[in-house]
Amino acid sequence: MLWHVAALLTAGLDLGEALVSFAAVGAAREEVFASRGWSERAWAAARERLAARGGADGSGEATAVGREGRAQVERLTDRLAVPPWRAMGPLRTGWPARCCR
Questions:
Q1: pTM for the predicted model, two decimal places
Q2: CA 20 to 30 Å from 73, out of 10, 12, 62, 89?
Q3: pLDDT in tens, 37-69
């Protein structure tokens, strides 16, 4: 989780933009975030900020720039997560790794 937050911050995304970008690439429906307390106004503002940076179009769909940016976030998350898992070794990571498959 912390690795993902670090990757999102490295990409320059604030919390709203991070969630909008997640929805924009089709990873979750926008309605999911309404249940987490995001008002329509706050969501629209985050969508506008992401669109101003070229990450989404006017309807909230990811652009090519947005899809690549999201892919970069995921790749960085993976790279940041590897060293701690390696440091813990297979005896400590076996069970969590099996659960995440």
A1: 0.80
A2: 89
A3: 888 899 999 999 999 999 999 888 999 999 999
